[in-house]
Structure to design on (255 residues):
């Protein structure tokens, strides 16, 4: 049986907010969130192991039901926290109240062909980049640790969906600036932050490589870049290591 790659548990414990994108869980709540993030990833790995070992269907279903129960618990907890703190993702997911900078609506005709060596269904979120701040990195700009992977690119660089899914959030107004969140078929969400323009709308279905918007320097930044994050829920605090997640899709951004 092929071994399933697991993210180090110490990394999963740092799924907290980037400063000052306000609504980070704190204290006892942060401990509960970290515990549930870890439990979800362990449950996800267990489901994959069972599927790869051709376990009985009932055993797989039970394991998948447990994973979803953990995600549901985490989702409810974070929604309550973020809604109380007026996080735009929770209270204004369509970006209408924040008057976000929407550009022309993107269409599937703009799908970008995958780079050599990448799968046909998934891709990197931008091009001409340099990987800078990584997941769990410490720094003065973050309240705890960095919760995503930064792709250093110039303002106006196209930012694209890494895989097929549905746009869940197109909003603005916090430390992440103009941002898009896409929900994928495996239940995870990808976040694309600090955009200068948003070219999709909440509820829109997108394909891998489809234009989401343009990179920029909105929110809490020191220069233009794309902040790319992978979350179990739409809400801050549920991040997991993004490069490991992309690797499971067959995508390996160049270092």
């Amino acid at each position: 049986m092929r071994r399933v790659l697991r993210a180090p548990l110490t990394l999963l414990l740092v799924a907290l907010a980037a400063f000052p994108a306000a609504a980070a869980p704190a204290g006892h709540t942060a401990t509960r969130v970290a515990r549930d993030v870890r439990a979800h990833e362990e449950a996800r790995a267990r489901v994959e192991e069972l599927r790869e070992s051709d376990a009985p269907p009932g055993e797989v279903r039970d394991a998948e039901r447990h994973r979803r129960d953990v995600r549901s618990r985490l989702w409810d907890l974070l929604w309550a926290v973020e809604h109380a703190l007026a996080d735009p993702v929770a209270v204004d997911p369509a970006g209408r109240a924040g008057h976000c900078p929407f550009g022309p609506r993107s269409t599937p005709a703009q799908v970008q062909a995958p780079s050599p060596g990448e799968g046909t269904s998934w891709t990197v979120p931008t091009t001409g980049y340099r990987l800078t701040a990584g997941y769990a990195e410490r720094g003065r700009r973050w309240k705890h640790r960095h919760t995503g992977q930064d792709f250093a690119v110039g303002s106006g660089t196209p930012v694209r969906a890494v895989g097929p899914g549905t746009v869940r959030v197109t909003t603005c107004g916090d430390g992440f600036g103009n941002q898009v969140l896409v929900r994928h078929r495996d239940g995870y969400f990808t976040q694309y932050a600090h955009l200068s323009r948003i070219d999709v709308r909440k509820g829109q279905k997108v394909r891998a490589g489809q234009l989401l918007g343009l990179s920029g320097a909105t929110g809490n930044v020191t220069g233009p870049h794309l902040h790319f994050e992978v979350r179990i829920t739409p809400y801050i605090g549920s991040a997991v290591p993004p490069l490991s997640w992309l690797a499971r899709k067959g995508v390996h951004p160049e270092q």
